[in-house]
Amino acid sequence: MTAAPHYHLLVPTYRNDFNTCFYCGCIASTHDYAPPPQYLEFYLATREPSEFLQVPCCTECNDHLKACKAGTLDERRRYAADKLAKKYAKALTIYEMWTEAELAALDFSLRHSIEAGLKLGAETTERLSYPGFDFEAAGIEHNVQHTAPRYFDVFGERFSTFREALEFASRAYRVPKNSLKERFAENDNNFELAIQAIHKDVAEKEFNQQLKKQCTDFARQHKQAVIFVHKQVERYLSENDDMTISEALQYLYDTRVKPANAIRD
């Protein structure tokens, strides 16, 4: 059984979309098939979801989709986008992390490399967000359903792209972009939760540094074991959320160290 009679050519409704890859918006130079011809018999026999379309496609998306068994446009679009994102992950990261203004301080070779990454990252971002186009197949008009634009909120400020939100949040709240991007993914893709988590970690780190320093100084001054002082102060702080490190150390002195010294004297 030949594949051709079972497929309908996907024809763009509007002239501007002619010769355009349905999946990413680049120039179409070949065709993809939904489902792939090698799985045609399976889809005909099982009636699994499939659209039997011959789809204008660029060479790169076509190469990626050779390994995709899906029969619908949406499934194949997601597959192609996932492959593009993985292939250009480095460029996408550069695009998210750098701005044109930050390149001035770099030496020529590094600046040239970052500029190339910015350009490729911008192109890839545009390809990944391409929605497809309205088309006609077998005499039936199909309108592509455009998804609602996604916004990124940062404490009252709203941005239409992740890159803009990341740049603003990093600058406004003095958080490194790498850390912020990582925490964004770990906190339900929420900038506000990510910033709060980072600030909490910074505060805890500073607190632990002060705890260690003050306990060590106290132990040396009063000739106590550092681990003893540290453990006692941690216990006092855990029992009283309002107590400060200095207050805990004073309490330790008044209740344990001073009475012990008085007995020895």
Helicity range: 55-70%
Element-level helix/strand string = EEEHEHHHHEEEEHHHHH
Beta-strand level of the residues, as a percent range? 5-15%
Give the structural class.
Answer: mainly alpha
- The number of distinct structural domains comes to 2
Spatial shape = elongated
Reading side by side through the largest sheet, how are the strands ordered? Answer: 1-4-3
Strand count: 8
What is the mean predicted local confidence, pLDDT? Answer: 93
Radius of gyration: 30 Å
Number of helices: 10
Task: Pick out the low-confidence regions.
Answer: none
Our measurement of the CA-to-CA distance between the termini, rounded to an integer number of angstroms, reads: 105 Å
Question: Could you give a short account of the major beta sheet?
Answer: 3 strands, mixed
